[in-house]
Records
---
Amino acid sequence: MQGIEQINELFDGLDVIAETAGKVYQDKKIDVADLPHAIEMLVKAETLMEAFKGLSQIKEEAKDLQSEEMLVIATRMIQVGNKYEAARKGA
């Protein structure tokens, strides 16, 4: 069993992107007012770097997923979507 460390790190990065995208989308346009959101995302650059550093290993991790790991992945996918929606609604 390979584990899903890299997949989890990818979802950590997707969380950051989803939250930023949701905040930017609140007013349905991209402009200067969104700079603070971009800066906020840059502050989390380490999380983003870690998320995408292991992309090449994700295929190997996915080859032997156990049912518990699939459940974790499905949950993380839902969490990313919820994070985007909450940020878009300003919650």
---
Amino acid sequence: MFDYTLDRENNRIYLMTSSNVQLVEETIEEFGKQLHVEKHWHSKYNDYIVYDYEPFCTDGFNIEYKIEANEKELVRLNFLYWRLQRILNNLTYLEVLCT
């Protein structure tokens, strides 16, 4: 799954994931084309290790996205946040159905 928060004061979405990376990236690519997106790899075991590029072995890393918008693109940011909520709700629902 992934964890996300909306910072309305700074017009940002913080998104952390270790699974469903392809789904998250496709959603950001589709709905966040005009938004500023930063991608970093954070170590699961050491808070000080952060890479701006994909590490050789990605097993021990979470991917963090920081998505920013200016005042004109705030509607896009809110829509992307809503879309990520819907995806997470659908994934949770499907997991419940499968168990």
---
Amino acid sequence: MKTFTVSRKRWHRGQGTSGSALRLEYGKQCCLGFLGQSCGIRAKDMLGISMPYHLEEELHNKFPQLGNIYYWANFSQINDDDEITDKEREQKLKDLAKANGFRFRFVP
């Protein structure tokens, strides 16, 4: 099972869905941005893009394949949820990733 690393220092999370993206102008990114970067997608290609399925097909196909492309929204909802702690967020993302055939690892 492939593991994707998320740097807490550069992780944009818990601020609601407004303004969230795979990659933001100031260098932070959501959990899916880290995943995309690990899959070989350049930061500039993810800049301002809200979901993997909004990328060009060639880039979107580099992400792990889920049963339905819209399942990525489940990751986004957890990532952006402003009513849970980071500890809860990390565990929920780990559980969801595992259920979809990959893993997240969170580092300082």
